[in-house]
Amino acid sequence: MALLALSFVSCGDKSKHFTPSSTEFKGGSLSNLVELVSTDYTLNCGDITHINVQLRLKQSLPHFAELNLDEIVLWGDHPLTLNLYDAGGNEVEELELGQSSYDILKQLLKGKEGDVAEVVFSSDDEIELNKVVSLTANNANEVYPMMYNLEGKIGRSQVVMTFVEYANNTIRGAYYYKRYESMGSQAYLYLKGDRKDNNVLEIAEFDINGCNSGSFVGKISNKGYKGEFVANMNLKRHIYDLKFNNELKPLDFSAVDFDRFDEYESYYDYIYGGEGSGNISEILDKFEKYVDDYIKAVKKAANGDLTAVLNVAELMKDAIELQEEIDKYQGTMSVSDLQRFQRINQKLMQAAESL
Question: Is 213 found in the same domain as 136?
Fold first, then answer.
C-alpha cells in the first residue's frame, strides 16, 4: 500500500505537498508491475482536485512489447485510485486515474524495467485540503494480459513456468525442466490453452516444432496452479503442483508464433505424418468387436456351454491376427487411436478379473 504523508501546506490552502512513505500499491495484479516513484508530489485543489504522480515499471514484460495499446486491457473502470484521508482515518475523497493517463500507463507496461511515466489522478469535487493528512494508492482491478510466474514439480521433476492470460481467457506461455536449465531457451516447451471457467485451465504443451507433446488440466488459485499432466507419447499421467513466485524472472516467449501450434494433432502425427490413422481405426473397430465377443464367449464357457468353448478358441486365433496388424502401427497411432486402444485393453482386463 502506498502512503503519502503530509509534509507542508502551501499558501492559500490550494495545494499540499506529500512525500510517499511507501511506494507499493494495495491489491490487484497491476500492483506487481508498477510502483510510485519516491519523490515530492503536490495535491492541487481548484475546480478539479488533481495530483501528478510518477509510476515506475518494476519489471520488463516481454509479452507486452509487441501488443497494440488496445490489446492491453485494464479490467475495471478505474484500475488505480488515490484515496485521501483525514486525521481520524476517514476517507475525504477518492481520486481516479485520468482518462488521458490510460494510454500513458499502457505504454509504460510495454517498456523496460525502470522506465518512468507521469500520470494524473483527479476528482471533479473541490475538497478542504486542511482536512487531508494522508493519501493511499489502491489498485482493486486487474490488467490483461495477466502474467503468472510459477515453480514447482511435475511428478518428481522441478520446473519453472511463465504464462500469460489475455482478456479473452486465452493462455500462452513457456516452461522448462530445471535439469535442462543450462540450455537456456532451447529447453523451453510452449503452452497454449484457455480458462474453461473461473478456476480450471486447460493448456496444451508444444515443442518448438509445433508438436503437441502433452497437456495440463488443473485448477488455479491464489497460491498456484495444480492438476494433472498427460504426456502424449506414452499417456503417462503426472500430478503437478506449481506455486506462484513473483521473484522469478519471466520467461521470454514474445517471438514465438503460437498460431502454428495447431498444425499437428499429436506427437505421432508430427513424427509419422499421421499415416495409417484411417486403417488403424478400422482395425480397432474389429478389435473392440473381438473383445466384446470374447467376453460373451468366456462367460458362456464358464457356465458349461461347449459351443462357447469352441468360440473362445476361435476368438483367440483372431486375436493373434489382430495383434499382428496392430503391431504394424505401434508408435504411429494418433493420440485418440492410442487412447482408444488402451481403453479396449482395459475393458478386456477388467472383464477377465471379474470372471
Answer: no
CA dihedral 225, 231, 232, 235 (to 10 degrees): -120
Q: Output the average pLDDT for the chain.
A: 80
148 contacts 251 by C-beta, under 8 angstroms: no
Range of the domain at 321: 277-354
Above 80 in pLDDT, residue 153? yes
pTM: 0.58
Number of H helices, E strands in the chain: 6, 19
**Which region among 25-39, 129-143, 330-344 has the lowest average model confidence (pLDDT)?**
330-344
Give me the percent of the chain exceeding a pLDDT of 70.
Answer: 79
User: Does the residue 269 lie in any domain?
Assistant: no
DSSP conformational letter for 155: T
Strand partners, 59: none
Q: What SS3 class is residue 307?
A: helix
- Give residue 273's identity as a one-letter amino acid code: G
d(CA 341, CA 250): 40
Look at residues 118, 143, 168 and tell me which one is the last residue of a structural domain.
Answer: 143
Instruction: Report the number of distinct structural domains present in the chain.
Output: 3
